[in-house]
Amino acid sequence: MEAMRWCQCAVAMAAVVLCVGWSALAERGGEGVSLTVLGNVQDGGYPHIGCQREDCRNLFLRPAGHQVVCLGVIDSVADRQFLFEATPDAARQANQLAALPGAHAGMPDGIFLTHAHWGHYTGLGLLGREAMGAQGVGVYAMPRLRAFLEGNGPWSQLVELGNIALSTLKPDEPVAATSQLTVTPFRVPHRDEFSETVGFHIAGPNRSALFIPDIDKWTKWDRNLREMVSAVDLAFLDGTFYDGTELGHRDMSEVPHPFIVESLALMEDWTPAERDKVYFIHLNHTNALLQPDSEESKNVAKSGCHVARQGDRYPL
């Protein structure tokens, strides 16, 4: 439970577990601003609670290290690092971030939250009295989400005890996370039971990225996705379900997301350069894109788009 022990215990192991995919940037010293995929699955994780499919059963026996959707961003010049989402896997993800080239030991300097659905903010609990007992970890949240955290336990205790320090985000207003890292939230339509939902534009000194892990449907958005993607170098987009057949026991209208097949159809007339920027993320445990050799993964590759894989790292 001690903060120092919590921060240091898994750094060495994390470096070994997730070194694949990071070596190229490590050879360049990890300098400047970089973005790393620390998780690519939907809120419920993979393996998924209650799932009796063979792949989930096997992963419970032999965990493969799949983690809930999260990005880590490091500015090694400013000696600051950030998580995008506080997931149920936040303990591992914070340590993995700290083990990367250019990172400092210990907790991230800030956490940016998209919305108040289970997999995106509940990792904040690990900062509290029962776990780390952190002091003043910066948490960036939109107004409704901030009010939700302040007004509902156990999150309100994190605020009262000073475990987290809340900063209010405003749509389309940039936040200077460091002198060469800017984060801008923008509203997206989603199931906003407890808070509004945002995506993020993350801009380093040389390149920029979109992060939209959750949205209902592209057609419900008041912005043009192609224009948004054209303006950045990387786009991590909601890829929760490959198609509408995955949840045979659930009403898909209760959990609306743009199906991968819908997104690919929307992007058919995009240029190859535009499609090359797209990385599907936030994959449900039923999504065949979690299997790199699946026909669905091959179809995405043929389209010119990509699947975000845990451990992928990019300079910004």
Protein described:
With 316 residues, the protein is an alpha/beta fold. The chain has a single domain (3-10, 31-309), classed as Metallo-beta-lactamase, Chain A, CATH 3.60.15. 25% of the residues lie in helices and 21% in strands. The protein has helices at 3-8, 11-17, 23-27, 54-61, 90-98, 118-121, 143-151, 155-160, 225-230, 260-266, 272-275, 295-303; strands spanning 33-39, 70-75, 80-84, 110-112, 137-141, 164-168, 175-178, 181-187, 198-203, 208-212, 234-238, 278-281, 306-307, 313-315. The strands form 2 sheets. Strands 6-5-4-3-2-1-14 form a 7-stranded mixed sheet. A 7-stranded mixed sheet has the order 7-8-9-10-11-12-13, with helices on one face. A hairpin with a 2-residue loop joins strand 7 and strand 8. The longest helix is centred in the first third of the chain and has 9 residues, at 90-98. Mean pLDDT is 86; it is low at 1-30.
